[in-house]
Amino acid sequence: MYIITHNPAFGLREWAAGIFSHILDTSELFLMDVGVRQLAVMALLALADARLPKPARAPLLLHKPFVVVWNAPTEQCRLRYKVDLDLGVFDIAANINETLSGSNVTIFYHTHLGYYPYYSDNGDPINGGVPQNESLIKHLSKAKSDIDYCIPMKKFQGLAVIDWENWRPQWDRNWGNKSIYRNKSLEIVRRRHPRWSEDKIRKVAKEEFENAGRSFMNNTILLAEHMRPNGLWGYYLYPDCYNYDYKEHPQTYTGKCPPIESFRNDLLLWLWKESTALYPSIYLDYVLKSSTNALKFVHYRVKEAIRVASIARKDYVLPVFVYSRPFYAYTFHVLTERDLVNTIGESAALGAAGVVLWGSMQYASSKSCLTVKRYIDGPLGHYVINVTSAAKLCSKVLCKKNGRCIRKNSDSSAYLHLSPTDFNIHNRHSERGPRFQVTGEPSLESIEAMKQRFICQCYQGWTGIFCELPDQSGKREQADRCYCQCASLSSPAENEELYSLKYFGL
């Protein structure tokens, strides 16, 4: 009798094959029927495949498993101050002229999509104030016009983000300054039924608010997906982790999402099912600068988003595009190199499809333009090239370009970084400023290190430990079609004039 355990340092198929090799050396095998032996092998390989990660949707850009998107209105830097930002380091430089909304990325704020009900800062109701007070049909009619206006291209294939933050669709999550939505909902029911008990009023108010909120959010995104079916539609800040207690308890902060919040995220399955992408946020407060708490904060927020993305669909994991900032929240202090790792690097290693670097109009003032340019030409650009190149390399070496690399152990400290002994990242100066150039080739040691630390999450249409096998489930055609569609997105990183990326054999 033999006891065989799985060594996590090895792939599951290799593990299964090892078990079979062990059996081959035993005399018992020769007593087996050939058919039984084949069934044993098939069972072992099936066991290995059963533990493979759920497939991912094909990437936004062909053969780019992890992208970094610049989404800041910095066009005025060039137009007014003659400061030309080199956005070639980014896979997608947001939109033409660097606007917040356009052919690649479109953000719908609460005043730009239909008749979104909310209360102003002064407590005045806008569009009824609460969702149960506003006509859904009227809202959807206006939303249709707004989508046609903001996204005139019917074949739009970019990121489509709905930014509705005034209220949350779950009653219990409307606290603090959002408690007005609960109070107003209670008033509505109380006026209709003054003789009801407070418990009954609360029960009905909660039901009416949550049902109306769900209808607003679900029907809006369904309409959007019907009108622009190739867009990646989702709500900004969804899912949230609510791990904000780093200020109150910095010494004991774990970063973990409270269990009740993960449970509430599970109850939002109706929203995840209708979304085609998730857009969580990892904006760092300055108090988290270069701290272990910053890593904890980001790690569990992205991990929760990946978890939610995996339960939204039966056949594939939703793409997760993590919203980050190149500066600390509400400041103009650039992220340290350590916090670039804590944000962009952590997101890539956990399996996000990309990071969106969001910025405000503040980025485009005279002094700010120079700060942004120095940062892009320096640490930010250098790190973005490092991570995106390493993700691309790992995808090729480990996953046959048919999947992305994700941590074997999600809580490890493994990152998708180019080995400094194998690769050089240096600036090639030109008329427009520095261009990043990567030269080198991976060593056998680096490749082995990748295999020890990362596994492949195959794209739809592929399976196997190394994504080497066509999937027989009929999804490959769909995945290939997405590749072709998504590859047409404008990507400045593909332009040789913007930056040069040279790999031996890549």
Automatic annotation (TrEMBL):
One record GO biological process: carbohydrate metabolic process
Catalytic activity: Random hydrolysis of (1->4)-linkages between N-acetyl-beta-D-glucosamine and D-glucuronate residues in hyaluronate
SUPFAM superfamilies: (Trans)glycosidases
Any one of the GO CC terms: extracellular region
Enzyme class: hydrolase
Sites carrying sugar chains: N386
Protein name: Hyaluronidase
